[in-house]
Specification:
The protein has one domain (about 1-200). Helices cover about 10% and strands about 40% of the residues. The protein has 3 helices and 10 strands, in the order ααββββββαββββ. The longest helix is centred in the N-terminal third of the chain and has 6 residues, at about 15-20.
Length: about 210
Amino acid sequence: MLASRRRLLLVSLPVLAVAVACVSETVYPGDLTIGTFDFQAQANWGLTDCKRDGGDFNRLVDGGFAFSGTFSRDSLDGGVWFTIDGFSRKAVFDAPTQRYVTTHRAGAQIPSCGEGCKGAEIEESMSVVVLSDSQDRAIGSRCANLTDGGLPDGSVPGPTLNGYDAERACGELKVVFLPGKSVECKCVTSCTAVYGVEGKRHFNGGK
């Protein structure tokens, strides 16, 4: 159960400092590393229906947090992955919109659900648009300046002599709490926490 929980972005926060330190030692799936991004997530209260005083939900809907992750692809079979804390989870890539989406669900042991509760889960879905260096400069290096549904002027991200041209990632993270299903469960209502996320590419070991 612990291994599954650590594969979730939010549940794994206490060990992210270790994950960042070891990122250069990770072998990413596929043959094309898009880049490693340092993300900052900020709660979007307008889209969040989890209560701020909701017990265990407090850890899900705090003011913000940071994490790092790496996108990689296989140029032959089209496979896409997002690697965090040494765990590579499946993703999809839509070239026309430059968008990467990754979703992962895992079991969660939530104290407020009560002892013996089974079936509680957390599902995370992150969707980000990845911009090239020239596109990033066009928005002043701020995701807040990115027009909804549109892309800024500039070259499309792609391989260069100096590595893959991917400078910034803009989007959101949704975290859905799914209550347990057994009769012992005290938690019976699901809720969704939404975060805006902005990622800045960092170069570490050429990544």
